[in-house]
Amino acid sequence: MDALVDLLGGFATALTPVNLLYALIGVALGTAIGVLPGIGPAMAVALLLPITYGLDPVGAFIMFAGIYYGGMYGGSTTSILINTPGESSSVMTAVEGNKMAKRGRAAQALATAAIGSFIAGSIGTALLVLFAPVMVALALTFGADDYFAVMLLAFVAACSVLGSSAIRGFASLGIGLSIGLVGLDPTTGQNRLSYGIPQLADGIDVVIVAVGVFAVGEALWVASRLRRTPAAVVGVGRVWMGRADWRRSWKPWLRGSFLGFPFGALPAGGSELPTFLSYILERRLSKHPEEFGHGAIEGVAGPEATNNSSAAGVMVPLLALGLPTTAVSAVMLSAFQQYGLQPGPLLFEREPELVWGLIASLFIGNAMLLVLNLPLAPLWAKLLHIPRPYLYAGILFFASVGMYAVNASALDLLLLLLLGALGFMMRRFGLPVIPLIVGSILGPMAELQLRRALQLSDGALTGLVTSPLSIGVYAVIALILLWPAGRALLRARRPRSGGGPERRTEPADS
Q1: For every residue of 108-125, which 3-state class applies, written as one string?
Q2: Which residues cross the membrane (predicted)?
């Protein structure tokens, strides 16, 4: 009850005209910057830090929150329209969203992303208000073995569920894990796979990997087939979602809302892993599994809802523990320190106006994003009518500018082109791209948690199964790996056990 009273006080702060203006500026700038390939909300907040020196802390953080949510929605726009994630958490949206756009359903994909973002963001923020203390207590009970088990589940699911071949999936995962190894060893400090290049000591930024493999790889692939394949006439489609679209989207919206928040609230959380798990879940539960890989609306609704719900969850460790778990929260932590504030339990007591005004602004920013982006969905979709040579030349230009702007490094441009060539070759030989992205994002985190678990157990492998959660996750992994073999064995025995003159064999699953 006290939390609801504090939240009402936060709305009184956030609904003042000047703070509403800051929120509107934040969501507008965040959306505009998120649409540019490679420039995500973290960079937008970092760029805006110097111009907020003259603002009061409440207004500055309300603007930052608007940029955060707006940047995530802008990333989904480029994922859907041109298969170019604006940030790593938008990678899963590109899988089905871009296929929907190519089928003339870009407006529906953008609409379900906008509505799902609003619903999930509102639910996630409500959960932040009601269950933040519980989530912090739960997160503190997670051990290194639990984190490693969950990440291993993501690896196995990526290779076994996505793509036409598990072997090709594991090959793609191996490439991604190798990319994640580049840089300093987190334990010994030794350089790995850096070949004496000092700029590689910090590793390869996952945004460079995502933009290179997706955007540049897609542009090269289209260019190689430009003269052999006629340009598809892509219609914008209806501006509004049809009844079937609503029926197929509302459950993924709710599932994504409740899946993303706990992962965002974990001290080692984030939005990449839950968005991937959301895609896997929707693919398993969908009544139209044959549409996945060809533009299933559930594959957009679920991950986008999860993405925005986890964004609210990220505020739990930041505000309650002072622990940043994403790039955006790390930049916001530096902003707190800029104002002489230290996030943690005492922040709620010392700066209640700031904390609850920030939380209330998340509700307001979500509503602003919905009102701002739903009317723009058909306008964004018309980008697909640009002739392909100009469109993909523009993608290469903005991707290159975005990557160079991050560190002003020519090496980043070279890495972008090399990873683009890698993405092209993967498309040429049928290797799925998602396991590579998952491996490069989660590989370093999984390595860190594995080493911690083994150090705590003095190198004994039993240290990886010290809790019921880790044991349960490993059981799920075993089920995923053994299920195809068991299903094939059952299919092989079924004709012999049927008996009688009528014999037929079922076609193998794709």
Answers
A1: HHHHHHHHHHHHHHHHHH
A2: 20-49, 61-82, 109-140, 152-184, 204-223, 258-281, 311-333, 354-377, 389-422, 429-446, 466-486
